[in-house]
Amino acid sequence: MFENLSDKLDRAFKVLKGQGSITEINVAETMKEIRKALLDADVNYKTAKAFTDDVRQKAIGQNVLTAISPGQLLTKVMNDELTELMGGTTSEINFSGNLTIILIAGLNGAGKTTFTGKLANYLKTQKNKKPLLVADDIYRPAAIEQLQVLGKQIDVPVYADPESKDPIAIALAGIAQAKQNGNNVVIIDTAGRLSVDEAMMREIEQVKGAVKPHEILFVVDSMTGQDAVNTAKVFNDRLDFTGVVLTKLDGDTRGGAALSIKSVVNKPIKFIGTGEKMEALDVFHPDRMASRILGMGDVVSLVERAQQQFDEKEAAELQKKIRKNKFDFNDFYSQIQQIKKMGNMKDLMGMIPGVGKMMKDVEVDDNAFKAIEAIINSMTPYEKENPDGINQSRRNRIAKGSGTNLTEVNRLIKQFEDMRKVMKQMSNPAAMANMMRRMPR
Which position has the higher pLDDT, 289 or 238? Predict the structure, then answer.
């Protein structure tokens, strides 16, 4: 996400390296490089120019403290301005009193149906809501079936009427069913439409008029860059939507849509899609995204993702097991599954300050855990619960059963034993204090 832009901005800041202060002369070249980097990322030209002008104005003449360099000071100014450019503050769903109606709109192929499922999952698991999905795309083949599959996957009901060709009637019937069944959120998945198709644009306006939604979310494929921003403007002129959703931000995106869209349509980005899984949806935080673009990581989001996946009661039980040195391969396997749910590995590493830059040329395989999982799955229940009892003949059998070799099995068991020792030491305050005392000062 934003890898190329981050690299180019990093190079631009190096122009100021070694300078004692930020002046009109030495900042000019840096601003030129930053503007070029933004344009390469497909940021709207007017937005890029206004942004660099603002940054230059705020940076020039600022006193550079002895503890920081001009490049670091400019990074701070850039961070503040990028945050403002992308909306300044976080904006989430505005819920109404009894029943909140959310209308989903956008182009064909933007990922509306997948986002509809993700949003329902997010509202159910994170906001304790009881959503109902309405399959209101009457044009795309298998659109209804896709939403029904997603609904089943996340255990959320779906209202559909495959026989009807009236999107207004379907939407109103879905709302009526939600009221009857006690759902407090209705999410209406509409058909994809081109902004130049007058009949389709008029249809979505009529659906809006009939259902009177509390939220209209415009879903846009971030990989389309500046085209996404232009389309958003046309849709906003017709629908006056309340927020934007950027999908496919985990792909090879240049970031132009995320950086331009707020300044062009003056509507907040509310959510970003970061993968195909139903959990791969994040609330958009402008300040955190600015930090990530500038290579400063995003520890807060990393911790939040971890908190969403790790159960407190389970964590307490695990801590007890670690203290008693009872942490086994069942526990290890469970931890791996929870880490995998947090998102793709390269994205997670990019949230750790400094690691994103280190990993930029490294391919991180999301299947990195496959061999470990295969080895653990080849163990008997006794072996999983008693790692110390895995003798040589058992190791040979595990290697054959997992499709790996003896070296890989031995390495995993050795790493597991080392990890167990460290975890036990860290869980013992007295042992930790002793370790700290012995450390060189």
Answer: 238
Structure tokens at 421: 């020792």
Cβ neighbours of 403 (radius 10 Å): 12
**Kind and range of the H or E run holding 113:** helix 112-126
Strands in 114-168 per DSSP E: 131-136, 158-159
Q: What average pLDDT does this structure show over 207-226?
A: 87
Every domain of the chain and the residues it spans: 3-85, 100-296, 325-438
Homologous superfamily (CATH) for 325-438:
Signal recognition particle, SRP54 subunit, M-domain (1.10.260.30)
Beta strands at 269-273 and 281-283: parallel, antiparallel or unpaired: antiparallel
More reliable by pLDDT, 186 or 79: 186
Q: What is the amino acid identity at position 40?
A: D
Least confident span in 25-34, 38-47, 410-419: 25-34
**What is the residue whose two structure tokens read 């909140």?**
100
Q: Give the span between the Cα atoms of 405 and 329, in whole angstroms.
A: 18
Superfamily of domain 100-296: P-loop containing nucleotide triphosphate hydrolases (3.40.50.300)
Strands 185-190 and 100-106: parallel
Q: Tokens 């029904």 belong to which residue? A: 148
* Burial label, 140 (beta-carbon count in 10 A; 0-12, 13-18, 19+): middle
Cβ-contact 264, 47 below 8 angstroms: yes
| 344 phi/psi in degrees, rounded to 5 | -70, 150
CATH architecture of 3-85: Up-down Bundle (1.20)
Phi, psi of 406 (to 5 degrees): -60, -35
- Nearest Cα neighbor of 144 from 157, 158, 132 is 158
Task: Give 109's pLDDT tier (boundaries 50, 70, 90).
Answer: confident
**Counts for the chain of helices (H) and strands (E), in that order:** 21, 8
Please name which of 329, 337, 417, 340 lies closest in space to residue 379, comparing C-alpha atoms. 329
* Whether the predicted pLDDT of 404 surpasses 80: yes
Other beta carbons within 10 Å of 141:
8
CA-based radius of gyration for the chain = 26
Helix (H) or strand (E) segment spanning residue 100: strand 100-106
C-alpha 285/C-alpha 292 separation (Å) is 11
Instruction: Using alpha carbons, select from 238, 228, 235 the residue that is nearest to residue 259.
Output: 228
pLDDT at 393: 93
Report the C-alpha gap between 75 and 64 in whole angstroms.
12
Pick from 93, 180, 106: nearest CA to 136: 106
- Give 335's strand partners: none
